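Hi C.,

You asked whether I'd gotten around to modeling the 209-residue construct. I have! Everything is below, sequence then structure, no commentary in between.
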Amino acid sequence: MTLALLHTSPVHVPVFDALRDTDHPGLALRHLVSEDLLARARDSGPEAVSGEIRALLAGVVAEGASAVLCTCSTIGGVAESAAATAGVPVLRVDRPMAAAAAERERVVVLAALGDTLAPTLALLAEEVGDRPVEVRTVLVEGAWARFEAGDRDGFLDLVAAAADAVTDADVIVLAQASMADAVTRTVTRIPVLASPRTGLAAAAAATAR
């Protein structure tokens, strides 16, 4: 059984390899990295890359993938919607995180990239349903520039500082998988949710079915 992971940055590869080694030893992972998908989704909208995503999914399924996990929140919805034609489960990494956040009444979403906010809010709305949940967003200014420059510590420090500045919430959601390690740098008492571990667990379960 092989789980294919669709990334839009190579930084995710060692993160998910480490989580696999810790939580799912023996699970075979195949990483696909396409930075261009995110660039074009930012320029023209996520739907602009739907055809390429379907082609990538068809390729990895033909090569034996039992399930696919998209680790990019911006294109996650488009990837997930391609499951019907892929013939295997296609999951977005942030859905389990969103489901957990939807159980709370006051949710703050942190994002380093503005383009991620709309897909994340739409996902939360799906998970919340008719419940009266207050959702607010915070764009972490300057964080994405640090990420693109390869300044991982600076990036994570800005995200952690933004989380620590939140005072009136029941849960804080880190909208992008790349933000996950900021959890270890926060001092807030508000629960901070990140997507990689729960997303990989859901995908591993889908692979085993």
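If it helps when you're writing up: Residues 78 and 179 are 21 Å apart (CA to CA).

Thanks,
B.
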